[in-house]
Every structure is written in C-alpha cells, then in structure tokens.
Amino acid sequence: MFFVRAARVLAAGGSPRRGLVCAPFVLMRSEPMSSMLVVGSVAQDTIHNHLGTHERVLGGSATFAALAASYFTPVKLVGVVGRDFPDSGVQLLRDKGVDVRGLEVVEGKTFFWEGRYSDDLTSRESLKTELGVFASFQPKIPAEHRKTPYVMLGNIDPELQVAVLDQIDAPKLVIADTMNFWISGKPLELAKMLKRVDLLVINEEEARQLAGVHNILKAARALLAMGPRIVVIKRGEYGALLFEGDSVFSAPAYPCEEVLDPTGAGDSFAGGLLGFLAKEDRVDGATLRRAVIHGSVMASFLVEGISVERLVRVTPAEIATRYAAFARLAHFATPAEIGTL
Amino acid sequence: MFFVRAARVLAAGGSPRRGLVCAPFVLMRSEPMSSMLVVGSVAQDTIHNHLGTHERVLGGSATFAALAASYFTPVKLVGVVGRDFPDSGVQLLRDKGVDVRGLEVVEGKTFFWEGRYSDDLTSRESLKTELGVFASFQPKIPAEHRKTPYVMLGNIDPELQVAVLDQIDAPKLVIADTMNFWISGKPLELAKMLKRVDLLVINEEEARQLAGVHNILKAARALLAMGPRIVVIKRGEYGALLFEGDSVFSAPAYPCEEVLDPTGAGDSFAGGLLGFLAKEDRVDGATLRRAVIHGSVMASFLVEGISVERLVRVTPAEIATRYAAFARLAHFATPAEIGTL
C-alpha cells in the first residue's frame, strides 16, 4: 500500500542536461535574497507514456522543488540516494546552483519508481516501486543549513517532517505537503506537524479527505483551523486556490498545448512558490498571490518536457513572459477600472 | 436514451416567488439597452437532495437563462408548456420583466423531470423524465420578436436551433448550447448549426467529445474551426474558459459556502453572459470577459437556492458586490503593476 501510493509523490525522472554554469537565480535577482531548504525524495523513474519509454530519468519531490526554486533563490537540498545514483544527476542540481551538501549518498539503491500514463495523461498506473535507501531516510540537516529562513517539507512521514523542524533555528516560513497515505495512516503525527507549519500545500481531493468535508471553502477553513495560517489547494489543470484569513485567491492554470509528462508538477509548483517567497523575503497577501502564480509558471514549464528536461532549460526571460501570459489569461476589468466603484 | 440524457439540460425547478413588479433590468441600466431572445425548455421538476424533496418546482433551460438575463436586458422567451403549468410560473417570469408572448400553452403535460442528487451534489440520478408537450416543440418566433439582436439557442435539437435562426432577421449575436446527445446523435445537423452560431457555450467533457481531442486548448481551436468565432467552455466549480481568436481567458468560479441546488447553473451562466452583452450592446474582448464573469455571478447565486428561489431574489447591488468579489478572487499583480514591463 505504502509503496504504491508513495510513488505518486516521490516519483519523476529526467534526462539530465547541463544547465547554466552560474546559478540561474543570479539572473533574476532584483531584491535582497534569502534562501530556501527543501527536504524530500531524490529518485530515478522509468516512465511509459504516449511518446514511449523513458528509462531511469531524474525524479523525486525534492529534485523538482529544488530545480523550480533555483530560478529565484539559493536552494539547499536534503535527501538520500544510493551508490547507484548517477553523478550526472548530482551535477545537474549543482549546475542550477543547488547546494547538495545535505544529499547523503549511502550503501543501497536509490528510490526507484516505474509507471505508465494513459495517452491523455489523466491517469497513471504504478508498475514498480522500490524505496531502497529512502525507506530508512532520517533527514539530517547540516549545521550550515540550520538557519535557513524558508523551509519546504516535502511529502514524507509527518514524524520526519517534525524531526526536520526540530533541527531548524527559527525559520521565517515553513511550507509542507502531505498525502492520503499519511492522512489515513498517521493522523495524530500529521496533526502535530500541521501545528508547526505556516503554509500547507495539498491537492483538492486530499484537502477534502483531511478536512472531512466536501465544500472546498469549508475544507480550507477546517485546514486553517488545524494550524497553518495559509493553505494552498492544488487543482491540477484547474489551477490552485490560496486561502489566508478571509482572503481567497483563485489562480488559473496555464493551458499548455503539449503536455508531455505531469510527473513532478505539484512539486515544481510548491518549489516555485516558496522560491519566489524567499526571493522577495516577505509573505504578505499580494506577494503570496504572485508566488502562487510563479509556482504555476514553473509547473507549466515542467509538464512541457519529460521529467526535468524542460524545467532545467527555462530562462528568466521565459519565466517573465509566462507570468505576463498568466496575467493576460486571468484579467478582466475590475469595478475600479470600469468606474463603478 | 434521449429522455434520460435530455433531462440533464432541460431539468430544473423552483418554488415561485414574487419578484419586483418593475422589470429588474431597469435598475441596472446605465447604457443604451438592447434585448435578448431565449428559446428552450420550460419545465417542472421534482428534486431530491440533502435537504429533502422539492415537488414540481420551476425549471427548464429557458427559464433559468431568462431569469438570469432579466437583470441586464429585456428578455423574450420562446417555449412551450402544457395546460398543467401553473399560472404562478408564468407570473414569476412576468414579474421579472420577461416577455412571455412566445410561451405557447398547448394541450398536454408540461415537461417534467425528477432526479436525486448525491449529498455532496457532485452526481445525480434521473428518476423520471416525461417530455410531454416538449416532445413535439416546434419553436415559433412571434413577429414582434424577429428583430431581436441577441439570441440564445437553448440546448434543443440542432435542427430546431437552425429553424429558429431562419425566423430571425440579422441577429447581432447568436449563442448556442449543445450536449452529448446531439453530438453523437445528430452530428451533421449540429455541424450545420455551428456554422451559423457566433458563440458556443459547452461543458468541458462535451467540448472534448465534439472536438475529438483531450487537450483543452486544441479542443477549443477545433471548435472555433467549426464555425463559432467565440467558444466558452464551462467547467462547473472550476469556472470557465473563453476563447476568441488567440485570446484565452480563464474565469474563476465563486467558492460558495452553501450550494443547495446546481440544477440550471449552466443555463443561468449562459443567460447572464448574453444578457450582459445585450445590455452593453457590444462584443469586444474586454466586454466578453466581463460577460463571462457576470454569467458566473448569476450561476453563483442560482446554486445558493433550490430551483430559482435565490435567483429571483437577487438585487442589482448584490450583483455588483459579487462582481467585485470575483475581481478580488482573481486579482494578482500584473507585470505593469509590479513595474517589470
């Protein structure tokens, strides 16, 4: 059970390519930068889709989140891989400026997932899940990372998420993801974790499951009452909803002409979101909305390639252009613009 | 087969209440007004939901569309009912300023539908469908209605939709709805109808079916190539997409705290949309976007009551307030506002 479900979150893959030698976030810098820590899975996946089979491509929630965030802020990654993990994977992260000193390499096999997508990419089937060294992952935050202000807890055992927080000094913002496996399997531990988290990102179905109510507004309020002061509900091709206090923001998804591989879209979304907040180094309502759009921008690029291949080729100019496309996509005349206010 | 599927579109219901005696659109008037004609079903429904059973409430696609549009523009309704149709139903339409001279009353029974919703309102089951006099509906457009500039072809046989257009003199804008029953059952007639329509409103699943492609951007392009120059894809609680040329607009849905009855939401959306266009009497891109939001506003009120009970109680001030809420819901800083343009 765990193996099959966990794959949904942990899986992904990529044909590693060399990125820019300089850290990409430098190109985007226009304000004081903070930094971000991400803890989660680093994996290899074999993906079968309408284009064929993609063998042992780069994957893992921390991988996607770190790469997406790397365009905005310095990123430190904490995870574990086996001796079989290719140097090219590590080098790819380094090329994008990701600090991999927290990526342990231990005896054993790297987390591996194999799955098959339906031709329209709306469903997928797990064919193989081998947790390998990830089964006994105990995140150790290097001393030099313990003061990182922005922290992303990838979707792992909520006990481990809490253990990570115990190793961090006074973070400014903690964002966490979770899934149905933990909601049903470790409710008490999840409840403890939620009390220590500022922002929960969760998909729509799991938001309803965790809140125990179908209406999405009521579900969001129930989640806010569990601890986080901000809740972001991911709705896939329908965008995302951001809840903070009484404010609700509905972010559109970008209608992509060619979706090649949705693996890691949610992780890229969360990584882009938190990376942008770290870059701006503030978490007010307006910045949160821009962060959600930047998360959506990174997810929209991610799905345009197999594994991380498109994500690592993105340029800062493309990010700005797509942000503008989101603005055009969502704009209609406000009462103030019409003059009816 | 027809009976069961048609019910999805034709069904609805409502406990008639008295509206304002004056036509509500007068209160909203701020610009020269045009007018709108709607052709479709007028029905009675019995609805079972989490609140209980609602016997023989007012329904029908033309009913919902006319009432939603009545807040913006003078509306003329063309449809058919049997001798059993209650005077209160006709009076309710009149009270909202709807011109019912085109509503035929003939020997026989009014279209009747009975259905049961799941507790979370995400699915429904048809229990009974009696087309009655609607089975032989042959829309006759009264002479005084033939120059109406804005025309809505409710979801009826595409041959009848074409027959309606043959009776209209040089309409400014024709909007049509359709459904899976006609897509699979009358593809040639549907193709002919689409060539004479300016704006197609269609739900997401049926857009994919009609276009024969899953990707929503490709589906919209395929629909545009069939005739209409504007396509609006309804996505229920996820909002709507508007396609016109290369422009795409993603409209959010309003997150309602209490959804009581979604019957007629799509018809209220289309009615509000076309009513707003008629009021503005222009169909440029910016006006279309505002029209989609007004359609969403009317649908968001509709679902807050059983049948039309909430829709007929809406005030112009509430419409303006909810439009402003949609603007807050969707707003994020554009590149121009941020100063990165």
TrEMBL record, chains A, B:
The keyword Transferase applies. InterPro entries: Carboh/pur_kinase_PfkB_CS, PfkB_dom, Ribokinase-like. Residues 186-304 form the Carbohydrate kinase PfkB domain. One of its GO terms (cellular component) is cytosol. The keyword ATP-binding does not apply. One of its GO terms (molecular function) is kinase activity. Keywords: Kinase, Transferase. PANTHER family: RIBOKINASE, SUGAR KINASE. This is Ribokinase. The lineage of its organism: Bacteria, Pseudomonadati, Myxococcota, Polyangia, Polyangiales.
